[in-house]
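Thread: Newbie trying to understand structure tokens

Hi all, I'm a second-year student working on a class project, and my supervisor (Dr. K.) asked me to get a predicted structure for one chain before our next meeting. I've only ever worked with sequences, so writing a 3D structure as a token string is new to me. If someone could post the tokens and maybe explain what I'm looking at, I'd be very grateful. Here's the chain:
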Amino acid sequence: MPFNTENMTVVRTLVVLVFMHAYIFAEELIQHGGFEEEGYTAFWECRGCSMTRVQDSHGGTYALKVENRVAEYAGPRQALSVTKNAFYEVESYVKLLNDEEGSVHTRVEVWRNIIFTDGTKRWHKIGNGPYLTTADGWKKVGGSFRAPDQDVEYFAIYFRGPDPAVSFLVDSVSIKLIPEMSDTWKDEAEEKIQQNRMADIILDTFIGDEYHLNDTEIQVQQESSEFPFGAMVKADLILGENEQKYRDFVSEMWDWTTISNAMKWRMMQWHKDSLDYETPTQTVAELLKMGKKIRGHNVVWGVEKNVPYWLKDMSAEEVKAEVDTRVKGVVSAFKGSLSHWDVNNEIIAGHGDWFEQNTGDRFLTETMFQNISAIDPDVKLFFNEFNVISSGTTTDAYVDMVELYKSKGLPLHGIGVQGHLKPGPPDILKIKENLDKLATTGLPVWITELDIEAADINDRGDYYEDVLTYLFSHPAVEGIMLWVWHDNGRPWREDTNLAAGLGDDFQVNEAGNRIQQLIKKTWRTKEVIKPTSQFSSLALRGFMGDYTIKVLHNGVAVLEKKVSVGKEGATVNLQAGSGLSCVSRWSAKSGIGNGETITVPCADGEIMTGCSSRAIDKSEYRDGERFGWNSSTKKRICKAINSAGSTASVQAIARCCKLPVDLQCSYPPAQASGTGENEQISIPCPTGKIPTGCTCLAYNMAFDGSFPDMSASSCVAQNDGIRGGSYGTGACCQASGLECVTKISERSGGNLGDKIFISCEAGYTITGCNVYNDFGGTAGAYTASWGGSEYCIALNGRRRTMSNQGVKAVATCCRIANTDAKN
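---
Reply by user tm_fold:
Sure, no problem. This is what the structure looks like when written as tokens:
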């Protein structure tokens, strides 16, 4: 699966420019690093080897040829004068002249040799070279170091590493002083956090008339972070009967997890014929149940001491076959359960090429990447290396390997960086320089195993806070996982712990409390905003992640939305109330008898959106209702008509609404259906208008009722019987953003006067309420409120002798359109 880096281009270019800028004016320490002049021998010496200039160069005309080496340490060196405690970057290029016999590849390393004024001698590696063969040509070997903070008598850098029989070329050697970070680096990191981890949130807010502004507030609560924070967990504690406190902390604190040992090949298969899938499977299941994402650690670990011992006596072909079995087995077993896999752990820093060396296949890990991706194409594949941000000895070789995999189109999705920091204040400059190098690849960087040693608990809290702040600010870092944060009931690396104790003795220490505060509170958004007007656009900047946003009225949530905020931010439309303020206006009672009518208008400032009627005795004896016009008062009216055979009055119920913006309605003339049973008449609304309420009238009681057809923007009235047709009318309304739906209830019971009701969904208001029954015999409909909600209530007007013939309530539910958050 080729890795697509198109979307990484801008980020990579920016990081490269920033990284290069730091070195343009840096002081160069190395003399004759390009070997272009004869005088190079005054600065370079070759202990246990011979050196000559040759015209096979990386840059310029000449390079240094190193041969006749007597030992692995034998190589060219140059003595330097370094500044106490200063930070330096080393860069060079090497090329093998012959391959190491019996090895699939080898490497050249750059070291420093120090003699202190007290006579003490030290040798420290500066940089691992990439794995090399003669076919690879020129390759970069680099690293970084901080000079000792004490007096030095002698300081030199030198090249060493491969078998003495291997000769090689060296060229373009450079050592440059890197300026220290500003004392305000943490303030600058906080600014970058705001730039890189936060986004704009716009709350387009409407507060309906039903809520008083003074009693209303908007609560913005971040529930989870888009940025992954996680930690290593122990399988025995996740599964342990008495470890609920540990599990509760993991559940509350970490979004991602890595199982420490239970998934490693050596631990799963200590003996060839004994394979433990049960422990990791149960642990993974428990973590998924807790809602955690999981990094699989690891498919293989090529450092010799971590290879299953029973592999070591096998032939090359047998080892290959076992690797293939391991890959197919473990990846298939956890397919769909893991988000990441570390494929071959510590292949560079730990000389983790055991599998390559013992199969004779230099490209075995590449094959593993391809095979894993074929089995589980959704899991993201990583390398996982140490000595990156902690020392920098691995970084340049790591970048070389990442770029090689990218060039081959291999499915490498991210760069795993461990980060086991040694005692003492963290070197933020070292972390920065190494992260900047990794960022040039364009792949996301995950800090996979961070722990920091400090005996003093306050220092430990300070160090964790500083390192996490810088890591969180760096745009290339896409996730942070802590490693040894809990003592597992034993004082192992206790100076890194953020919590300790088993069972009921589990307890978070002061450093752990500070990390909780940082991750769960400082880097989470929680705001309460008071709207000052009915319509408002409120802006804030919040951390990326998932939010719950509530509109509270007198402390009670009247609107709640779940919103995801990503890099593009989010615009959230909050509409508390429908935007429509509607009431029911009831008429007086009509006279009794055929053709007796009664009307009701809306109040001034209100617009009629619906009209219904009901028989006082809950019988079917009524002819229905219609929209009308009172020419004397020049007002829209809702008219109810009594029927022949009635023994009680009828009432008209107008649904009257208003908006804080213009609402306009029109009322198409009544039209009659055919005279047959169940014949319908459809009254279309003018273009751009929506039916908010419908009516039905038949001068012989023979009607089934009416309902809006939103798909056709029309009102439908249905006839019942053959005594004449039914007439339909409707309210056709428009307003900016007006949106309506129809809600229809189940059937009522079959007894006279039985009720059935339906309500609108939250955020909608009833603009029209009707009764409908394809078996006729309706007694009317009206809107009523109880329990803080409004309902459309329909009345059954006839005793039914057969089941499932009761009436239905039809509610027209409208609101001012409120789209979901866009992000």
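A couple of things are worth pointing out once you decode it. The two ends are 29 Å apart (CA to CA). The longest strand covers residues 168-178. Feel free to ask follow-ups in this thread.
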